[in-house]
Amino acid sequence: MTSLKNKLSSSGPKRMLALDGGGIRGALTIGYLEKIETMLRERYQSPNLRLCDYFDLIGGTSTGAIIASGLAIGMSAAEIKQLYLKLGGKIFSQKTGLLKRLNAKFKIDHLRKELENIFGEMTLASDKIKTGLCIVTKRADTGSTWPLINHPDGKFFDYNKDILLRNAIRASTAAPTYFEPEEIDVGGGEMGAFVDGGVSMHNNPALMLFLMATLKGYPFHWDKGAENLMLVSIGTGKWIHKETVENVTDNRLWDWAADVVNLMMKDAKDLNQMMLQYISKSPNAVQIDTEIGNLEDDLLTEKPALHYLRYDAMLSDDALADIGMSDLNWQELREMSAAENRFVLNEIGIKAANKQVLDSHFPKAFDLIKEVV
Fold first, then answer.
1. In DSSP terms, which residues pair with 123 in a beta bridge?
2. Element (H or E) spanning 194, and its range?
3. What's the pTM value of the predicted model, to 2 decimals?
4. Are 231 and 209 in contact (CB under 8 A)?
């Protein structure tokens, strides 16, 4: 852990990567990662560069936790893609029996087996993790959000360091109604019941990573500032929520059970985005709503606290046509468990990234030193 601690504690600009949850739509995220990795390899003329070489902290929620962990142990974007497209088809294909479906829709056998194949006996303290890693999950028995990190100076690292990486990922992906909760020994013989981090405020973990990097209670203590701290956040597809009045007023109890969760997750995502744009320098800032716009004339802090980039693909007719992918059923693409969509989602991510991700978005102030490259 010495080399990792040196990396996390060294002076100089720091770079963070945050990956959203969203089930099989994580295939879209990988399209952006491929673009960023290729761009950085060309910039540094380093064909074997991995994103763990560039980013000092990689965090993910749910499906983003799978991808983040793979990147953190040194997998390339291409390797992640191959793994994810294979794994995605298995995870959402094995449904539970009729009686067990009252607890969860899908079995977890394939997911557990594949995570074991990839991560083996690695723990959060493993020296095979080459950069800072944050896995966001929710401890359901206490109602608290748990960002599990591998920083050796973390307050709870001595308790959590022996948690198997595969179990932490499984906990972060345990979406209620889709998969059963994960039980983890959190130290001192205490067990915790964990579910998907997406049911917290941090299905998009970007704001969590910024807080983790800068608050004194966390161990990183990185300097704020647009030339000191960069945060790249990647989504799993977005759309404008719109229902007819009749559909809403006719909702039954079970309809509301799903809709309320989705509405709250949307609010959390929007608040996350608004606050990060409010405190940052963001060259690709998006419109939050028609009232406040993209906050280009608003700044909460005296100076920008970070350099912030948010990438995501709109799943709508117009947006898909704009990247040359017309005649797709965008409603089906939004379903997080529709594994058959994983290939087209990845293609959407690739084409959207080619339009959205620019080399100029990554300032020279955050370039790697030659010794690292």
1. 164
2. strand 191-196
3. 0.93
4. yes
Q: What is the pLDDT of residue 257?
A: 61
Q: Which two tokens stand for residue 3?
A: 């080399």
Q: Which two tokens stand for residue 306?
A: 């970070």
Question: What distances in angstroms separate CA 146 from CA 212, 261, 271, 343, one per listed residue?
Answer: 12, 19, 20, 32
Q: Say yes or no to pLDDT of 360 above 90.
A: yes
| Chain segment 13-27, per-residue pLDDT in tens | 999 999 999 999 999
**Could you tell me which residue, 239 or 291, shows the higher pLDDT?**
291
Q: Give the integer Cα–Cα distance in Å for 287 and 106.
A: 37
Query: Residue 3 has what pLDDT?
Result: 87
Give the E-state strand segments of the chain in sequence order: 14-19, 57-61, 132-139, 144-149, 182-185, 191-196, 229-234, 280-281, 306-311
Centre a 10 Å sphere on the Cβ of residue 271 and count the other Cβ atoms it contains: 14
Sign of the CA dihedral running 197, 199, 204, 207 = negative
The residue length of the chain stands at 373
CB atoms within 10 A of CB 331: 9
Angle at alpha carbon of residue 167, lines to 29 and 185, rounded to 5°: 145
